[in-house]
Structures are given as C-alpha cells and as structure tokens.
Amino acid sequence: MASSLSEIDVKILNALQEDSRLTVQELADRVALSASSCWRRLRSLEETGVIRRYTALVDPKAAAVGECVFAHVTLERHSAETAAIFIEAVRKRAEVLECYAVSGDADYLLRVAVGEIADYNRFLEEFVFHLPFQVRIRSNFALKEIKYETALPLRATTR
To answer: Where in this chain does the record put each HTH asnC-type domain (predicted)?
Structure first.
C-alpha cells in the first residue's frame, strides 16, 4: 500500500529531488519548518521507504557510458523458475540500469548503458547468450535524449 504524503512531505521530497545535498537546516528553511521537526519528518520518510537512498546523477557522456539501449526481452519458456533465473542474472549486470516486467510483445524491458555499440555486443555475448534458456531480444538504440528526469511528480495524498 502506498504511503500517505502530506503537503509538507511533498515539499521536503521536492526540495531533496532538486538537491539531495541540502543540510537539514537548509531543507527546514526551504519548507518553513524547524530543523528538529524537519529532521523527524525526513527520518520518517527514510524509515517508511519513501526515500530509498541518496545519490549523485552522473552525466553518461562525460563518464564514457553514453550509449543507451532499450532491450525488449522475451523468454521462450515461461515458468516461475525461468523468470527467477533471468531476474537474478539481470540484477547482477551493472550495465542494466532498469528492468521492468511489461505487457505486450516482450516480457521484460531493459535500459542498458554502454560506452559504445561493441560494448553492447559484448553484453549480449557474455550475458544474454549464456542464459540457460533461449530468449528473443529486440534492441533499440537511443539516437538522442529528448527528456530525462529523475524527479517524481509528487502530490499530497492526505489533508
């Protein structure tokens, strides 16, 4: 079940999505709370899992991993065991930034970050082609990034 978010929680989360390096005092000033009250709310958001972690956003091109590939993966055999093996294997691959079970023609959608096309080919050879079952994979290379956001569009869910 989703957590309830108050208006002040949303203000805190929006401020942190913009700049996660804010001190508690800076955050409190932005959302018009005392530092101790802000700290308590922040702690609650962390403990309830609303805030998963804090991180830095790295520019892929500057870090030489600027190629983005969307891989549509279809498992040839559908079973709980096959799915579990695939999911466990995907979680171990650093190149796979996101993996979703999806509806439609494919079973999974992966967002894969690599330095160049040859690195994606190596990913296929070392990972996909070594799975203990057959998969179909359809790859789409991103030509240009139009929009990339990490901030969720939050709204209060309680009054």
So the answer is: 5-66
